[in-house]
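idk why but the lab printer keeps eating my pages so im just putting this in chat instead. protein + 7-methyl-guanosine-5'-triphosphate:
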Amino acid sequence: MVKSFIHASKIRHAARKRKHHSKYKTLRKLIEENAYKIESSKPLNGKLFKYWKNRRRLFSKIDSSSIYMTDELWFSVTPERIACFLANFVKACIPNGEKILDVFCGGGGNTIQFAKQFPYVYGVDYSIEHIYCTAKNAQSYGVDDRIWLKQGSWKKLVSKEKLSKIKYDCVFGSPPWGGPEYLRSDVYDLELHLKPMGITKMLKSFLKLSPNVIMFLPRNSDLGQLSRATRKILGPFAKCKVLYVKENGYMKGIFCMWGECFFNYEPGTQGNNGVELCSEDEKQEKGETTVATKDKSVDIYDING
Ligand code: MGP
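predcted complex ->
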């Protein structure tokens, strides 16, 4: 396997071996202190309380296994059923795929579910704390043998072509949206507020590594910007498929997809863990607000609990 990644089951070994490097010193300390382990029954205060209340939706094993999360992960980790749905969806679209790259792996919510479906899953994150949490959570879910991790800034990794040795079947990213404040304005500016770069640059960087790209973005994202970024990079007739994702009837975000394989998807072919698909027409009948434009394919998935 590519040397620059560390195997999720061997973080202790990696931290010992590369002990002179400051980030591995930090990793070693985190492991020794068993840092960020969640005590599921202990409520969190302030703005994290609502995320704690929904903790079992984030990680279903939070009561029975050891789960690790930083404060930032509480509000940015993808809820398990959504991550599970996405991994099944990608598997249905790319049945012979093997290698998935999760660009902002965070606490491993998506990485873990991808590893249930694919044999090689690569997780990247700028934070060594997040890399540690992903590895620990993957161990709790018994999928650490299929995951390889790398700490680093996405900008630098892409510009130095550090990741291009591997041929990824799909590149996925759930980037930082700027915290829970992302809902402050009606429309989320994807060029201004997405971290670590705007949507156009981000999409370009993902497409360098695979023609199949998915991003999880705010539900109030500016779809005009999405359209413009798509055409600017892929040409005037290129499309982006947008899926609105609901959990328990409540909109959580959108999956934006680029790549032929995602357009040929048939819902019937997917083992979709209770995910309900409505067409855009059904959405209108139900009186939902619609943001479809003529060049987009917009669907709603409702993940009922
Ligand atoms: P939320 O919108 O903060 O909470 O996060 P809620 O309860 O749905 O909305 P509210 O209207 O009651 O405030 C919903 C989901 O969005 C989270 O579970 C994450 O999956 C995702 N999410 C939220 N934030 C702030 C981020 C982020 O910064 N990055 C990423 N990748 N996902 C996020």
